[in-house]
Amino acid sequence: MPRARRLTENERLSIAKARAEGVPVRELATRYGVSRVSIYNASNHGTERQEANASRSRVIGIRVSARDLRGFDAALGRRGIAHRSDAMRRLMLAADDILRPDEAMTEELRAMSAALNRVGNNVNQVARRLNEAKVRGELPPYTAASHAEIRELAGLVFELADQIQQLFRARRRALDLDVNKALAGLVSGGQNGAD
């Protein structure tokens, strides 16, 4: 009894593609000189291969400047991480947490923006009064009360600046925690690799 012909890998893939396009099994069996069972097996092999390929990891390429790469490697080095590819993979997996906007911070910044707008309006009113006096040739109406008002506005601006710095530091700490969590377990004693 003659042995059945074995299909090559390329033939199996071609058969799977043809079956996906609706070519009948009988036609493919005749074309390749094999049984219909072989055509079904080849078709299943192609489907299994596609499913396996979909779950495989992908190699991606990105272009960065030498300066950016040195900065990234230095950041990894400060954390004791030797392999940048492992770090990138972990950071990509954690991207949803790391890149999620901080809603509370957004609301606080909106409130600060409104307060700064009010300060800006007050400064404009003071400037308008001073300019009007200058145009009329009068001495500017700068009283002790005006001075106190300007000092109060300046104090508010400095207070808002301090609050923005505090928000920035809090957000930075939160991001550091997220990054450290994402990179946990990658610490090693070696130097950064160029992988």
Folded structure, characterized:
With 195 residues, the protein is mainly α. The chain contains eight helices and no strands. The chain has two domains: 9-55, Arc Repressor Mutant, subunit A, CATH 1.10.10; 81-183. The protein has helices at residues 9-20, 25-32, 36-55, 66-78, 84-93, 95-98, 103-136, 144-183. Helix 2 (25-32) crosses helix 3 and helix 7 (103-136) packs antiparallel against helix 8.
Radius of gyration: 34 Å
Multimer state: single chain
CA(first)-CA(last) distance: 54 Å
Largest sheet, if any? none
Q: Roughly what percent helix?
A: over 70%
Report the structural category.
Answer: mainly alpha
Query: What is the approximate shape?
Result: elongated
The number of distinct structural domains comes to 2
What is the ordering of alpha helices and beta strands? HHHHHHHH
Mean pLDDT: 81
Task: Please give the number of β-strands.
Answer: 0
Low-confidence stretches: 189-195
Strand content: under 5%
- Counted by DSSP, the helix tally is 8
Summarize the structure.
This protein has about 200 residues and is mostly helical. The protein has helices spanning about 10-20, 25-30, 35-55, 65-80, 85-95, 95-100, 105-135, 145-185. It holds the Pfam family MobC.
Question: Top keywords for this entry?
Answer:
mainly alpha; Arc Repressor Mutant, subunit A; 195 residues; 2 domains
List the helices and strands and how they pair.
Blueprint: H1 9-20, H2 25-32, H3 36-55, H4 66-78, H5 84-93, H6 95-98, H7 103-136, H8 144-183
Helix pairs in contact: 1-3, 2-3, 7-8
Domain Bacterial mobilisation: 116-167
Organism: Roseicitreum antarcticum
InterPro entries: MobC
